[in-house]
Structures are given as structure tokens and as C-alpha cells.
Amino acid sequence: MTAAIAMVCMVLLNSCSYNKMVEKDEAVSTAWSNVETQYQRRADLIPNLVSTVRGYATHESSTLEAVVAARSKATQITVDPANLTAEKLAEYQKAQGAVSSALGKLLAVTENYPQLRANENFSELQAQLEGTENRITEARKRYNEAVQDYNVLIRKFPNNLFAGMFGFSKKEKFEASSGASEAPKVEF
What we know:
This protein is an all-alpha fold. Helices cover about 75% and strands about 0% of the residues. The longest helix is centred in the first third of the chain and has 55 residues, at about 1-55.
């Protein structure tokens, strides 16, 4: 009788732990989807921004082409939330960093065009882009929080015993890009 009670307790503990791990794993996947949504929003804004700038700054074609190329490359890289390895995350982050860098150069170039800065469409696109960058930062923060909750759950005893049995493994967080601690160099 005692063995049966112990077995029932073990099954109940196991199912509760499993369900909690599934819940946290899904939270990580949702948070990752939110990160991708914000990056997609930025990618969707870029063609409009480039088109608006192109009308004013036709001789800045190399800067415009760099933005378009970085956007194209970044939108081709996808990461499966179930397979968030450090390498995949670094590749994704590198591509998104190239977009950020190219956009930074584009916005720096636009400082030379007072008519462009006064253009209502450009001002609206720039404001949307700034808002999107803030949303990206917030989505990445929430993703990291979801990953932390998940990683803590699967590492705590007795969950750590069941996590490996059921295929739950540590997830990777977003980290600052290399060189992020240095201020960007802006030249006109």
C-alpha cells in the first residue's frame, strides 16, 4: 500500500512538473515570436523609409543599397523557437545588427538634407522606426525574462530530474552585440 501511495505521489509530482515546464517553454516561444514580430515591423518600415529618402538623396545610393541589402539578409534568417541555439541566436542577432547599423548610417546621412527632415512622411517614418526600436528592446527584454523563468524551472530540484527525461533543455538569451558598449561613430 505504501509503495502504491509513493507511486501515485511520484506520478502527480511528475505531471505537475511536466505541465509547468510545458507552460514555461510555451512562454519562451511566445516571447520569441514577439521579438520576431517587432523585427518584422522594422523590416516592413524600411522600404518606405528608403523610398522617401531616395527622392531627396539620390546620390547617397550606396547607403540606401546597404540598408536594402541588410534588410534582405535579415529577413531570410529564421530561427525555430524550439531550436534556439547560441549559434542560431548569434547569427540572427548579427543580421539584425547589420540592419541597425545600416539604418543608423542612413539616418546620419539624412541630417545633410533639411528638406527631407522637414518632410512629413519622413518624420512620421522616423518616429515609427524609433518606436519600433524601443519595442524591439522591450520584446528582447521580455524574451530574456521568459528564458530566465524557464531555465530556472528546469534546473531546480526535482524538475531537473524530469527535464532531461522529457527533452527540456536550457534556452539561450539575447546578449549585447560585440562592440555594443562603444558609442557609434557618426561622420558627415
